[in-house]
Amino acid sequence: MIKAIVIDDELYAREELIDLLLDSGEIDVIGSCNNAIEGLKKINALKPDVIFLDIQMPQITGIEMLSMLDPDTMPKVVFVTAYDEYALKAFEDNAFDYLLKPVETCRLNKTIKRLKREYEAKDYSPLMSDMLELIPCTGHNRILLLRPEDIEVAYSDLSGVHILSTETKANTQLTLKVLEEKTPLIRCHRQYLVHPQAIREIKLLDNGLAEITTQYGYQVPVSRRYLKELKDRFGLS
Amino acid sequence: MELIFSLLQQLSVYLVIAYLLSKTPLFMPLTTVSGRLSQRFSCYVLFSLFCILGTYFGLNIEDAIANTRAIGAVMGGLLGGPIVGFAVGLTGGMHRYSMGGFTDVACAISTTAEGLLGGLLHSYYVRRGQVDQLYRPFIVFTITLVAEIIQMFIILIVAEPYDKALHLVSAIALPMVIANSLGAALFMSIIQDRKTIYEKYSAAFSSRALKIAQRSVGILSQGFNEESTKKIAKIVYEETGVGAVAITDRDKILAFIGIGDDHHLPGTPISSGYTRRSIDNCELVYADGHDMPYCCSLSNRCKLGSALVIPLVGGNNDVLGTIKLYEPKRKLFSTVNLTLGEGIAKLLSNQILTGRYEQQQILLTQAELRLLQAQVNPHFLFNALNTISAIIRRDPDKARQLIQHLSQFFRRNLKQNIETVTISEELQHVRSYLEIELARFSDRLNVEIIVPDELMRVNLPTFTLQPLVENAIKHGTSSLLENGQIIIRGYVFDNQLVLEVEDNAGTYQPVGEESGLGMKIVDKRLKNMFGQQYGLKMSSQPNVWTRATITLPEDKALQHNDINKIYVEANKQDHRNGENTA
């Protein structure tokens, strides 16, 4: 059975697609949600083989969500849309699989057949943007969309990836790797990213280590491996 | 005594020249004290000439000249100010000096002083804002009198030898003082006449032009046709007093009034070559009856002898038609009417254009209404069908309901020609719309409608609320991750009826967005119906709410008739009850 997650903001459309997928007998729908932020969480938690992804969704569209996924753990994607000329053309050009709403059963069956045949996820980079404009985060019972320039520090620990901004602390479903690639944040430690413009002070310690203090006062460790890069960057070596 | 008469004789010739000159445009600058450089300059030139003329017209006496030079100097100063006065006096004085005699220096000095004196009086009155005083002959008489007396003293003081000067002054003082003062006063009175005539003429002209403009306002806004042009022709005919007035379009006579209206009939094609020429070349054609004879092309018994044909020019220099003024053979065109004719043509052209513009505006509003109706359809229908398609297997009953709502929504949209509806009907329309949208956003949209019953019968333009609700969903709550909330409120505040559509997204962008068009149309239709102070306003607190507020007049909207009716019904009821008990 193929494990799938359905992400669509319209309840009835979501339910209908889930019904159709279950009817096929080939797909196990392990989760569903109504927006991209929930979607990221579900994907990270459930590790589906495939996601059925609606494009028109509030705040973060399906396409934007794609850029936030870690390419290493990228599931297969079947796009679902009612109308989006631009996106449809991109799907056609790159031979990405997509479904039109309302979903036709025979078209869906073809898609399922293809999913069974293909083992690897495609390279979705033609749809992805190089830089992210908003970073979805969850705070205390709320969802935040932070702009990368407001983020000072990102770090990971056992409980996930955390964001320290000028105003708040929050968690994000994005990996450090995605953040490093698609935001101005730079790596200073295996588990830490820092915004170069947020650095107020770099204190050099023994053993080739260092510690960064940000404008807002966060302390960030610098490992030996990244200190040289950091120095090079600021022309200090 | 003899000298007085001789001098007065000379003065007469001098004044005749002044009078003749006053008939020419040369005198125009003298009728106002504008203080402009051109006015000052013409004062200087003209009065310097008069100053010199005064010297030439003088009578030789005892190696000196009894003259009327002072008139030019004083007048120059009075009308041109101190600098001009000084310059005129100096010019006249230098000229006198060049002629020699024992009083040459004294005369030069005194003439300059007289010019300056006139100029100082000019400054005095200008500063006090009493420019009109300068034109009063009595004032001119007095100042010239003073000036001449001063001149006599200057001659006594400056001229050598003293006893010769004294003798001279005793001979010429009286004649010169009288002649100059009188002359200056008369000269000013000529200018004053000229001024009055000109002002009367322009007043008459303006009042006639204004009257035509005033009476013809709005007539042509109903269109450029026989009915409207007939009214215009009548107004022009009455106000100008010409023999006849005709208005044509490009092909035929639209209106004719006055002499010859027995054979110049509205509706007949244009036959006059002059009119054709005016239309084809877009030019004014004037057949004055002499150099260019006007001959009626319809009847040889026609009494009309001259015609002025002026094209009515619309935008892009298109000739829309002509207006024609006629005079009978025995009468000539007055210049006033010749000038007025062109003005009238311009006025009519503008009015025709305005009329067309207004008509287009009406068409545009109708088109906008259609647009508003059409705008909603494709996306909405598409989404609605998708939603129904998604529901139909799980919940066929719900799907059937939605199809009914959709059908209701479109039924109302098909009633294209209804201009106004009651709030109740409009809310019904909104509800049909909302049912579909609520199904689409079922788990994250909430709508509340709080409008009291007494407001339900109020009229407003069709499609006023629905676009606002649509906007609130499309650009507002649909961008929220959850808990979209739309509130439709109605209440009376500050003598206005207020309707609000509020969402909890606060994503309103003041400019741009194609949705702006829909909002603009809603606003415009409200303003058209109720007046400029009413309409639609958008307000927003970013990320908290966006509110579309509609205001309508309370009294007009609340339909007093209905309230009265209820009141009367109640009274009748009481009355009947009373009868019963009796």
Q: Could you please describe the fold and organization of this structure?
A:
Chain A: GO terms for molecular function: DNA binding; phosphorelay response regulator activity. The complex is a heterodimer of chains A (237) and B (582). By secondary structure, chain A is α/β, with parallel strands linked by helices. Chain A has helices at residues 11-24, 36-46, 62-68, 85-94, 105-117, 176-182, 224-234; strands at residues 2-7, 27-33, 50-54, 76-81, 98-100, 135-138, 143-146, 151-157, 160-165, 169-172, 186-189, 192-194, 199-204, 210-214, 219-222. Chain A folds into two domains: 2-122, Response regulator (Rossmann fold, 3-Layer(aba) Sandwich); 135-234, LytTr DNA-binding domain (OB fold (Dihydrolipoamide Acetyltransferase, E2P)), CATH 2.40.50.1020. Chain A has seven helices and 15 strands. Chain A has a seven-stranded antiparallel sheet with strand order 7-6-10-9-8-12-11. Chain B is an alpha+beta fold and 582 residues long. Chain B is 59% helix and 15% strand. Chain B is elongated, with a radius of gyration of 42 Å.
Short recap of the structure:
Chain A: This is Two-component system response regulator YehT. By secondary structure, chain A is α/β, with parallel strands linked by helices. Chain A has helices at 11-24, 36-46, 62-68, 85-94, 105-117, 176-182, 224-234; strands at 2-7, 27-33, 50-54, 76-81, 98-100, 135-138, 143-146, 151-157, 160-165, 169-172, 186-189, 192-194, 199-204, 210-214, 219-222.
